[in-house]
UniProtKB/TrEMBL annotation:
<feature type="domain" description="Expansin-like EG45">
    <location>
        <begin position="66"/>
        <end position="178"/>
    </location>
</feature>
<feature type="transmembrane region" description="Helical">
    <location>
        <begin position="40"/>
        <end position="60"/>
    </location>
</feature>
<protein>
    <recommendedName>
        <fullName>Expansin-like EG45 domain-containing protein</fullName>
    </recommendedName>
</protein>
<dbReference type="InterPro" id="IPR009009">
    <property type="entry name" value="RlpA-like_DPBB"/>
</dbReference>
<keyword id="KW-1133">Transmembrane helix</keyword>
<keyword id="KW-0812">Transmembrane</keyword>
<keyword id="KW-0472">Membrane</keyword>
<dbReference type="InterPro" id="IPR007112">
    <property type="entry name" value="Expansin/allergen_DPBB_dom"/>
</dbReference>
<dbReference type="Pfam" id="PF03330">
    <property type="entry name" value="DPBB_1"/>
</dbReference>
<dbReference type="InterPro" id="IPR036908">
    <property type="entry name" value="RlpA-like_sf"/>
</dbReference>
Amino acid sequence: MENFVNGDFIVFLSSLINLKASPPIISIISSAMPMHKHKVSVHLLSFQALVFFLSIFIHFSHCDVGTASHYGPPFLPTACYGKDASEFPSSNMFASAGEGIWDNGAACGRQYQVRCISAAAPRTCIPGQLIQIKIVDRAQSTVSRPSRDGTSMVLSTTAFQAIANASASLINIEFQQV
């Protein structure tokens, strides 16, 4: 088994990632290491370096998982904006908030990124599609009835068809407020 002494590990680590360690990095790493000449196992240091670099690149998801259905016109009046059609995005990428995210009306105007993750029927979701929608209404009080009640969101038909097959009435979604 090969062992390294303080500065040797820094040179080894720099060559592993094919970068030259800058003097501030070397001084930070060196100051964290004891000044006496401990021999350190390559496996332990390699493992620590791997954990460090993976922690830089791995993100923990802050998304919620729920369900979505869809609805079509008429959309007015809404619980958020009454008869003001100017609040609807021109892209028609909007939704009504289910009770879980309605938050006593605070959901009005919130933007969410949404993607389809599964459905009862295979190949319902359009892979890799992520949309951004605006909450314009409360699902419980929409003028048009949704394709399915009790969902996290009721997407406009345009938004729904951007992430899933239109023939589905219910999909499982991952969503995150932006």
